[in-house]
Amino acid sequence: MTSATAAAVTAGGSVGREVSTFFYRRSTFYLLLLLLPPLLWLGTVYLGSLFALLLQSFYAIDEFTATVVPKVTLATYRQLFSHPANVDIILRTLGMAIAVTIASAAIAFPLANYMARYASPRMKAFLYVGVMLPMWTSYLVKVYAWRLILAKQGILSWILTTVGVEPVLEAALRTPVIGGPSLASSYLGMFIVFVYMWLPFMILPLAAALERVPQSMIQASADLGARPGQTFRNVILPLALPGLAAGSIFTFSLTLGDYIIPSVVGAPGYFIGMMVYQQQGTAGNIPLAAAFSVVPIILISVYLTLARRLGAFDAL
User: Fold this and answer.
1) 265 within 8 A of 184, measured Cβ to Cβ
2) 137 in helix, strand or coil?
3) Residue 171: CATH number of its domain
4) How far apart are CA 224 and CA 166, in angstroms?
5) Pair 140, 228 in one domain
6) Is residue 220 part of a domain?
7) How many CA atoms lie within 13 A of 66 on its CB side?
8) Residue 238's pLDDT is what?
9) Angle between the 75-82 and 286-309 helix axes, to the nearest 10 degrees?
10) pLDDT, tens digit, 9 for 90 and up, residues 159-180
């Protein structure tokens, strides 16, 4: 190595040390420099579009020209909450989201408990892969596959007929509100597809929460004479509640915002996501579409506030 090369290497090392020392002594500036690119992306793309959406919801459509009037008004929100059809859409979507969340929790808890406490390592790995496997498949493929499964002459109807429980299916389809000509054209069928789609998002955080329940506390509860039901209510359920709340965040919010499943499976009737799509695309009523979009934001914000008090974010 020549003297010139050695001097260049020494100079480069000296500059590197100076830069390192500069950032070491100014840790706050260094942290801000690292966070600046994602913060710019978040502020520009996500928050910027969100604020633009909120602003659009305070505009209105001119009845004669059918153009957006860029003037702040509450007319669009009055239209949203004064029309019974719009209120019915909101209540229908909210009811479906609550029902899907409760059903997902009821189905996920036994499976998550077995995965966390009783399954062998090999079985646990198999179950985790089995739970996540549907998530690796195309969303649209799964929705249309379920439409074929739930059709009047579909495989589910054939299975129920074969085992002799077709009268139960017919009675369910005759039930007001949830029934219909077939499962593929009823709210019951839509409910089944929603639960299938979002169930993995409930199982995974719930299993993670149950794995953190100390076995010693369960043994202590048994030693003190508690029955299995009492142990579940007083020990397991309170400790697993953060995971349950975390999973319900996904199932609740995803059901509120989905518009593909209600468009493909289920009885005629709009959901919030479908109305946003129609008003923004077909009708060209951007303010009303924005106002409909604000409703899930408010509902999810209230739900997240309650979930945070239950420690849901600790289980994410």
Assistant:
1) yes
2) coil
3) 1.10.3720.10
4) 48
5) yes
6) yes
7) 5
8) 80
9) 70
10) 888 888 888 888 888 888 888 8
